Recover the amino acids of this structure.
């Protein structure tokens, strides 16, 4: 019963990834993050890394974890941190935000379909960024107003 309540309260995010753009849409509230997929990381004196900027606010020399000549993922940890920051920005409206369900959709560099390694990396990247459940979708762009997460998960 608690699972059903949390499921109804949690957000469903549609994450579209291009090499030079990332768009995250909350399909319930229609809040959108649509910016460059950049993340700026600073190494602190103690050796820890801290995210200082992301999206369009990041320096042009920042890391783009979704830019590689052969595929869409070039830096798993950077992509995970970027998704985490974007999720927080899109969902930071209330006191309590249950972990979202996420639909990951690679919009380019997917000719012939994604490999099982890419699918696993995308799933684990979203889970590490805070997702409750993840679907990696391959196909035409989805209409945000008619997305059914449970149907896509089948």
């Amino acid at each position: 019963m608690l699972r059903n309540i949390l499921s109804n309260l949690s957000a469903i995010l549609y994450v579209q990834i291009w090499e030079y753009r990332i768009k995250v849409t909350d399909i319930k509230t229609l809040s959108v993050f649509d910016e460059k997929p950049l993340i700026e990381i600073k190494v602190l004196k103690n050796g820890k890394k801290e995210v200082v900027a992301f999206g369009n606010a990041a320096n042009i020399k920042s890391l783009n974890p979704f830019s590689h000549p052969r595929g869409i993922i070039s830096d798993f940890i950077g992509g995970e941190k970027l998704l985490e920051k974007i999720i927080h920005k899109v969902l930071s409206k209330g006191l309590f935000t249950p972990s979202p369900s996420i639909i990951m959709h690679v919009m380019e560099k997917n000719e012939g379909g994604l490999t099982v390694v890419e699918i696993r990396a995308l799933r684990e990247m979203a889970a590490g960024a805070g997702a409750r459940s993840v679907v990696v979708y391959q196909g035409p762009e989805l209409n945000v107003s008619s997305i059914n997460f449970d149907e896509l998960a089948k």
About this structure: The longest helix spans residues 76-91. Residues 2-153 form a domain with the Nucleotidyltransferase; domain 5 fold (CATH 3.30.420.40). The chain is about 25% helix and 25% strand. The two ends are 21 Å apart (CA to CA).
